[in-house]
Amino acid sequence: MADLLDRITMDPAIAHGKPVIRGLRYPVELLLELLSSGMTIDEILADYADLERDDVLAALSFAARLAQVKRMEPIGHSAM
User: Which domains does the chain show, CATH number per domain?
Assistant: First the structure.
C-alpha cells in the first residue's frame, strides 16, 4: 500500500494543495466521486487516458487511510 500512496502528492501550487494523483491535477476526491457514482475503474481509465489503474487504487488506499480514525463524535444540534 505504501507504494500506491507514493502516487498521491500535495503541492500548494496544484489544486490549492489538495491531494492529487502524481501531480496531474486530478484530485483524489474526483476519483472517489467517480467510483461512488458507479463508474468502474476501466470506465475511469477510458475517460482519463493519462491515469493508470494504480492511480485509482492509490485514491482508494488514501481514502482508507483517512477513514482509520480512533473515534468519531456524532454531529448533533446543540442548544443555543
Answer: 2-66 (1.10.10.10)
Q: Bridge partners of 54? A: none
Q: Is the pLDDT of residue 15 over 80?
A: yes
Find the DSSP H helices in 1-80.
2-5, 28-36, 41-47, 53-67
Q: Which residues, other chains included, contact 17 with Cβ-Cβ below 8 Å and sequence gap of 6+? A: 10, 11
| Encoded amino acid at 37, one letter | S
In three-state secondary structure terms, 74 is coil
State the chain's maximal CA–CA distance in angstroms: 51
- pLDDT of 78 higher than 70: no
pLDDT over 80 (residue 23):
yes
> Residue 21: which H helix or E strand, with range?
strand 20-21
